[in-house]
Amino acid sequence: GNLKTVISKYVVGCDGARSLTRELMNVSMESLGFKQTWIVIDMIMNLQERSLPDRTIQYCNLERPMTYCRNVGRRRRWEFAVLPGENPQDFLLPQAIWSYLERWISPTEANLERQAVYTFKSEVAETWRKGRLLLAGDSAHLMPPFMGQGMCAGIRDVSNLAWKLSFCVWNGHSEELLESYQSERYSNVIEYIKTSNYMGDFVNTLGSFKVSNTVFKKKDGTAEMKSIEPKLGFGLGDLQDPLRGKKFPNINLVDGSSFDQYFAVRPIILTNISIEKSEADFGNSVIFTKEKSDLDSILKKYAVNALLIRPDRYIMASLPINRSDDEKLFSDKEYDLLKFINANKSFLA
């Protein structure tokens, strides 16, 4: 295609594991210990397909670990590990592929769409920002796919970064705001990478490896795995606030609509107390939970009278119930930030 030149104040490199942006920034990757070669096979099933599982399955096979993925429409994916001493290219030949998949399908039931060699790695970039160049997604961090969190982590990156860039570009905010991007996201994504590593070890050792601290024994003797929800790392807000950096849930409001449908582009305060006009002009950024009973129950769950929620849906500050209503809602830092936001609410609306 034709080359085009684009003038921009910032560039965010979301250009994957072999990031050109990262290369131009001269940023190296730090290994977190996991590296394996796998074969990935994509198939398109015929209309009269054999009944296959309607879910993703990890096969903890000690001889050869593998994964089956029920993808969109008639697409199905198989992934299997290449063992030490084997040549990955040998597995890309059609006869080798069909021989391996014969327990599931035959050549008359599907068309081979794609076969590739993937190297599953766990790595993180040492620096995510240099001046006006930034990294996000796989260009900033890599993890094995056993949690299905690679793209999710990239979405969390851009959710954290987008509103901060918006404030800098459109609202004249200091670029110091961008310094909180890596510090907040780094420790969060590291937890997902480490847990993905543990799960990879689990898949590859037929269940003999304990998967982090996410597996809990129930009273009936069975085990249950719960998703991790790490908080944001050091950055905006008071680290002494126990709710600061926690993810706020996307809930349905009493009218059946989604919370994010209305409040996904601007910071807001949720409160169940009255705010006098003389205290501050909060404008449309205040949501009174008495009008939204679902939100009122959330405040009761957190044992607070108010929450300041960022555009990326993380909690920045909270007002515990044991504080009197006539105290200032938040520390000066959050209070000033909210006033700044409301001064630009015509852009945020």
From TrEMBL:
Residues 4-187 form the FAD-binding domain. GO terms for molecular function: 3-(3-hydroxyphenyl)propionate hydroxylase activity; FAD binding. Pfam families: FAD_binding_3. GO terms for biological process: 3-(3-hydroxy)phenylpropionate catabolic process. SUPFAM superfamilies: FAD/NAD(P)-binding domain (SSF51905). It comes from the Bacteria. Gene3D superfamilies: 3.30.70.2450, FAD/NAD(P)-binding domain. This is 3-(3-hydroxyphenyl)propionate hydroxylase.
